[in-house]
Amino acid sequence: MAGRRPKGRPEALSNLLRNSFEGTNLGERLKDLAIWQYWEQAVGTDIARRARPLRFGGGVLTVAVGSAPWMQQLSFMKVDLVARLNSCLGEQRVREIVLRSGRVSDAEGETVQAERPTPRRLRQQTQVWIEQQCSVVEDPELKQQFRALMEDHYRSSGS
């Protein structure tokens, strides 16, 4: 009988689906879904832990990024990431990457938390100055909030 596959190794389901739907809208969607399959291979483990594809359409891949520093880093890498993805896909499917802030889960579904920087220590001179400024505030709760606000400000500015 013509069209029968010879005995031996079975055909992979992904190949059967790809061949069955080739040239149809569903076939094109299956090609799009390969982005998720090749994501970690294309971008590397470090990026894949911090950024995940959300949706793809019209050549535009939307990616969720778990933190602002990684968002900035990936914005500089967009052209390279597009090239890497298209290389893994074997064709020019991804035209552009759009980055969105969002939660990113690892393979086990655990949310990856952004690494928080260690707070800077305040110089002794800055601590004395903050205490002087807070000494004029009479309400204890307001004084505590004012002190915390000033400390946060000076820690973030590096003083």
List low-confidence stretches: 108-116
Number of domains: 2
What is the string of helix and strand elements? HHHEEHEHH
Q: How much of the sequence is in beta strands?
A: 5-15%
CATH class of the largest domain: Alpha Beta
CATH architecture of the largest domain: 2-Layer Sandwich
CATH topology type of the largest domain:
GMP Synthetase, Chain A, domain 3
Q: Biggest β-sheet: count, sense, barrel? A: 3 strands, mixed
Distance between the termini: 83 Å
Helix content, binned percent: 40-55%
Rg to the nearest angstrom? 26 Å
Number of strands: 3
Largest sheet strand order? 1-2-3
Question: Would you kindly provide a written description of the structure presented here, covering whatever features stand out?
Answer:
The protein is mainly alpha-helical and 159 residues long. It has 2 domains: 13-101, GMP Synthetase, Chain A, domain 3, CATH 3.30.300; 124-157, no CATH class. It has helices spanning 13-21, 25-43, 45-50, 68-89, 124-134, 140-157; strands at 51-57, 60-65, 96-101. Strands 1-2-3 form a 3-stranded mixed β-sheet. The longest helix has 22 residues, at 68-89. The radius of gyration is 26 Å and the shape is rod-shaped. The relative contact order is 0.10.
